[in-house]
Amino acid sequence: MTKVEFHRWQKEALKAWKDNGHYGTIKAATGTGKTYVGIASLYMFDKKPSTLIIVPTLHLQDQWKKELLRFGCPEGLIGFVGGGKHEWNKKFVIGVINSVLKSNKCKDHLILDEVHHYLSEKSIEIFKRDYKTLLGLTATPERMDQKHNYLFKIAPLVYEYNVDKAIRQDILAGFELEYVPLILDEGSRKLYAYYTGTISEGMRNYHDMAGLQRAAGNMDFEAINALRQIQKRRQLLLNYPAKIDKAVELIKGEIREENAKIIVFCEYIKTANKVKKLLDEDNISCGIYHSGLNKQEKTDFLESYKEGHTPIMIAVKSLDEGIDVPDTDVGIIIGGSSVKRQMIQRLGRLLRRKEGKTAKLFQIYIKDTKDEEWMRKRTAHLRQFENKKFNPSQHNIKLSTY
């Protein structure tokens, strides 16, 4: 068994959970050690209970098993549900949510990793099963549809550990944000104006997005066309060639000056392919990580990245949550949504602490467009930290324009 040192926050979180009758949700920033809290919860009982650990993906299954083994759990007691396996007879079962839902089985102790994922009409059934204790783990419980209120009724938020506290206590590295504004060329600007005009007219005619979607569902051509223009505008902004060129320029600078490990965040696989093509032409070692890879391909590439053999990862959406990628120094956002959760998860990829590290996150965006609006929305909470909570001189946090 590997000796595991627990931080003060983890001990406090477990005590809060225990004091609430072994029921509750713990919210903690990405990279601070939520998995350790989950496994340590097994030791809060006189006898370790039979346990079902629910995860959203197959890759997280492997991560949880690896950590259970580090804590000294015999491999013969660990079973998988999902990926073609149905090992419900094991004492500690790690199950992918979609596979778990196909059975009505449960265990005494229920751990829900990335618990905010399990609040859809289908997944919410998991909370109604026959368990005795429940622990929810998440960095971002809040949902735009407000269904987190249902979660907090069942498993109240018993402890919160945010990025601010984690940096103050040297659990996470400090970080800098660098803003990199670009401008659309004339042809793209005309296209953007056309898309936006069509979208605005559709919104006026159907009142809001919900009305637009209802009309499109009823095969209204005008509504369908407006929705198509929304997607085209999004692709124009998030796959803009100048963004890709700027990302490659930044990568070359960071590798030359810092010998850094870098993650490039994209929204589309075709964007990632274009970045890789340019890097390949300059013989810069890189690889792409996306949902289209099979489990073994993902595992092999992540190992290559962690070991430093492939120091640049071009990630498409699927890296935003749950994946453990320690020792990353630089992040470059080519495309992103306005959702705060996505920003928190992406920043969390960079903040794993190591001596002398200050992480750096570049946000490439197009000025005076929806892209700038999305960037400002997803970054608003970080500006709040700077103005009200963080002291940049203490925490190496810089909000600046490149």
What does this structure look like?
- Mean pLDDT is 85; it is low at 384-402.
- The protein has 402 residues and is of the alpha/beta class.
- The strands form two sheets. Strands 4-3-5-2-6-7-1-8 form an eight-stranded mixed sheet, with helices on both faces. Strands 11-12-10-13-14-9-15 form a seven-stranded parallel sheet, with helices on both faces.
- The protein starts with 7 loop residues before the first helix and ends with a strand.
- It is built from 15 helices and 15 strands.
- It is globular.
- Helix 12 (295-306) links the parallel strand 11 and strand 12.
- The chain folds into three domains: 8-161, P-loop containing nucleotide triphosphate hydrolases (Rossmann fold), CATH 3.40.50; 174-183 and 241-401, 3-Layer(aba) Sandwich (Rossmann fold), CATH 3.40.50.300; 186-238.
Question: Can you give keywords for this protein?
Answer:
alpha/beta; Rossmann fold; 8-stranded mixed sheet; 43% helix; 19% strand
Number of strands: 15
CATH class of the largest domain: Alpha Beta
Intertermini distance: 47 Å
> How helical, in percent, are the residues?
40-55%
Task: Spell out the helices and strands N to C.
Answer: HEHEHEEEHEEHEHEHHHHEHEHEEHEHHE
How many domains would you count in the coordinates? 3
Mind summarizing the main beta sheet?
Answer: 8 strands, mixed
Output the CATH homologous superfamily of the largest domain. P-loop containing nucleotide triphosphate hydrolases
